[in-house]
Amino acid sequence: KRRNYPAGPIPLPFIGNMLPVIKEKPGYEAFRKWTKEFGDVYTFWMGSKPYIVVSSYKRMKETFILDGDTYADKIHQPFDEQFRGGSYGVVDTNGHLWSTHRRFALTTLRDFGFGKDLMQEKILIEVEETFKKFDEKLGVEQEIPGVFYNASANVINQLIFGYRFDKSTIDELAKLKALMEFQETIFTTFKIYVEFFAPALGKLLPGKSLDEQLAEFTVDFYKFFDKQIEDHRSKIDFDSEESLDYAEAYLKEQKKREAEGDYEMFSSKQLSNMCFDLWLAGLSTTHTTLTWITAYVLNNPEVQKKIYKELDEVIGSDRMVVTADKNDLPYMNAVINESQRCANIVPLMNSRCTTKDTVIDGVPVKKGTGVIPQISTVLLDDNVFPDPYSFNPDRFIDENGKLKKVDELVQFSVGKRQCLGEGLARMELFLFISNFFNRYEVTPSSTDPPSLQKTTMFNVTPRKIDAILRRRHT
Ligand code: HEM
């Protein structure tokens, strides 16, 4: 079969090319080595399935960006439909359902950013809440990621369901957090790993199957979403023009469509799956990135000094940093960019699927072939980012001290399936991080700075961070 695909590493029976990926966590090196050996288009076998890997920005532009429609679909994952009860949501669906709901979610989120700027307002409420939490333990060791976690969860929950978790609902969040943590550990067990990449082989190994584990984790999540949706339904004012959260906007659209005789496109099952996708895609990515940025800064005292210098010159007090300040803080933006590049939290991207016969790099490719935009290789491309494993925010600063736009910074991916929450994520990262460092002198609590060691390929999360915070402006 290999003859029909671009050249690549020789696959082994059952496991394909997974061994080198698993061996060197979190999986970047195997892909970088193959790119050097076979070029920026090669074939990688996950179990017995071939995927064409595209691993340079130049080639991604020719394919996923300029010929976007050909790469708009995601590859079908049977386990996904199993736990959702059909083809629902936005992360794993294709065609008209996917494009309609992607557009609707994007428009709804964009509307929250206009007018009275609901999005920034909701994020700044959470920034203030993190301040209250951190201020309780000034001068003594305290844990940082947990506070960022609750804040990111509150932002996404505010935008989807219009409320934040307070004292009366904090147990609800604790349960959801435990579920998220359970989900993150599913893919760290050997059986599930094998089952994911070589289903036939994995199923023979002892232990709970991927389907069983996902069912366990999702059932309580859906209970939470369905309860929120029912609460909304009972209180909603269908005549109000402005929607204050995504669920409200969706229910209004559902009613409108039903009045026109369309009961399918905005179904209630689709709503719970959209909430599931937005909640999950939006929370762990943002929280993980906030934690990585803090970890990189604490490991680089020179960078931290420069952050403080810029904040002192531009902000100069403990007033809230807002999005209007963003252009005046190029170094802060460069630190966020470089942290995202180094954190590189998606070592192996989900595969797209060609929607028609096409040609990649001169090789004919059939409709329905898996093609992967391998962003982790681009983020570590030493032609663009020399010494790619070193943390150096200055690579994003130009000779005039301004922020440099670098196309290869593709942490939110490229093309039709690129991150739907990019605008929200960028705003959260900027507001949380710039306000955190503007308000606090942050020092690692022990003699060593936080570990930068990466864990598995599905879960590139940083280790625990304890730090001592002191107010910078009194
Ligand atoms: C630092 C934070 C984030 C990072 C690094 C990130 C990264 C990504 C990446 C790499 C993809 C895959 C795109 C592809 O398949 O090519 C993606 C997809 C997606 N992200 Fe994000 N994301 C972040 C935050 C968010 C937030 C806050 C939301 C919530 C609104 C979100 C919602 C989604 C959704 C729904 C998709 C699937 C889009 C589709 O298939 O059409 N993400 N994200």
Describe this structure in words.
Keywords: Heme, Iron, Metal-binding, Monooxygenase, Oxidoreductase, Signal. GO terms for molecular function: heme binding; iron ion binding; oxidoreductase activity, acting on paired donors, with incorporation or reduction of molecular oxygen, reduced flavin or flavoprotein as one donor, and incorporation of one atom of oxygen. The chain is of the alpha+beta class. The protein has two domains: 1-86 and 348-379, 2-Layer Sandwich (Uridine Diphospho-n-acetylenolpyruvylglucosamine Reductase, domain 2), CATH 3.30.43.20; 87-344 and 380-471, Cytochrome p450 (Orthogonal Bundle). The protein contains 17 helices and ten strands. It has a five-stranded mixed sheet with strand order 1-2-8-5-3. The longest helix has 31 residues, at 268-298. The N and C termini lie far apart (69 Å). The protein binds protoporphyrin IX containing FE. Residues 90-91, 102, 277-278, 281-282, 285-286, 289, 345-346, 349-350, 373, 411-413, 417-421, 424-425 line the site of protoporphyrin IX containing FE. The site of protoporphyrin IX containing FE has 25 residues, from helix 13 and helix 17.
> How many structural domains are formed by the residues?
2
Between the first and last Cα atoms, what is the distance in angstroms?
Answer: 69 Å
What percent of residues are in strands?
A: 5-15%
Q: Which ligands accompany this protein?
A: protoporphyrin IX containing FE
Q: Please state the structural category.
A: alpha+beta
Mean pLDDT: 91
Give the beta-strand count: 10
Helix content: 40-55%
Order of helices and strands: HHEEHEHHHEHHHHHHHHHEEEEHHEE
CATH superfamily of the largest domain: Cytochrome P450
CATH architecture of the largest domain: Orthogonal Bundle
Number of separate helices: 17
Biggest sheet, spatial arrangement of strands: 1-2-8-5-3
Rg on CA atoms, Å: 23 Å
Characterize the biggest β-sheet.
Answer: 5 strands, mixed
Shape: globular
